[in-house]
Design goal:
5-stranded antiparallel sheet; 3 helices; globular
């Protein structure tokens, strides 16, 4: 499955309920871009450290701090995506995260020198392999 529209708004991420995937890597990259975790924390696995960083992120964004990435959390993150030239960028508090949306609504993330389609049921991102 490929991520479409508003990031992963239809996908819920939680410890013990989320299979390793590019989508988790994207969320972990959002946490990194905002300064809530180290770049080395992007593992594409939704673990306790990711859930704790997510709780802090949610609290700081005035959301229910349950550590679960659902529609409200995805929506708050999506509000920080802005167009920059031919790309979109998640404007993190510390770093920008380049994204691109294809004409059919699929989000792609910049990975290892190229844009890469995000998968919800597999790990294909270079950083996570």
């Amino acid at each position: 499955m490929i991520v479409t529209n508003r990031l992963g708004a239809t996908q819920q991420l939680a410890v013990g309920r989320s299979r390793r995937s590019d989508l988790i890597g994207l969320w972990q990259s959002v946490l990194w871009a905002d300064g809530y975790s180290a770049r080395s924390s992007v593992t594409c696995t939704y673990d306790q450290a990711t859930a704790e960083a997510t709780r802090v992120w949610q609290s700081n964004h005035h959301l229910s701090a349950d550590g679960i990435v659902g529609p409200a959390t995805w929506g708050a993150a999506a509000e920080r995506i802005v167009p920059v030239g031919q790309w979109m960028v998640y404007q993190g508090e510390r770093y920008g995260l380049p994204l691109r949306q294809t004409p059919d609504g699929v989000y792609e993330v910049y990975d290892a020198g190229r844009f890469h389609r995000l998968r919800t049921n597999a790990v294909t991102l270079t950083r996570c392999r």
